[in-house]
């Protein structure tokens, strides 16, 4: 299980995960995703929420860690 999937589950979200390497059209989707991400400056794997690109898993995890550090600050 990916770290970002665990994060969403811990937040009470039931994420839908699409593993491109397990889909017959995965290669085609990966190329389309790479073009989309290139224009946004993000990397694969990517996170979409409500059909909108949020960014790379690194970006999402970084935001979660930053939020967590602010919530524990004095």
Q: What features would you describe in this structure?
A:
By secondary structure, this protein is of the alpha+beta class. The chain has one domain: Glutaredoxin (3-Layer(aba) Sandwich), CATH 3.40.30. The protein is built from three helices and two strands. The protein has a two-stranded antiparallel ribbon. Strand 1 and strand 2 (52-56) form a beta hairpin. It starts with a helix and ends with a helix. The mean pLDDT is 83.
Overview features:
74 residues, alpha+beta, Glutaredoxin, two-stranded antiparallel ribbon, 2 strands, 51% helix, globular
Could you outline the blueprint of secondary structure elements for this entry?
Elements: H1 3-10, H2 26-40, E1 46-49, E2 52-56, H3 57-71
Antiparallel strand pairs: 1-2
């Amino acid at each position: 299980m990916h770290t970002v999937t665990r994060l969403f589950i811990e937040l009470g979200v039931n994420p839908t995960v699409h593993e491109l390497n397990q889909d017959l059209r995965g290669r085609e989707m990966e190329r389309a995703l790479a073009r989309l991400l290139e224009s946004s400056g993000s990397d694969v794997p990517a996170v979409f929420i409500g059909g909108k690109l949020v960014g790379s898993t690194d970006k999402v995890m970084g935001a979660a860690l930053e939020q967590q550090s602010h919530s524990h600050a004095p």
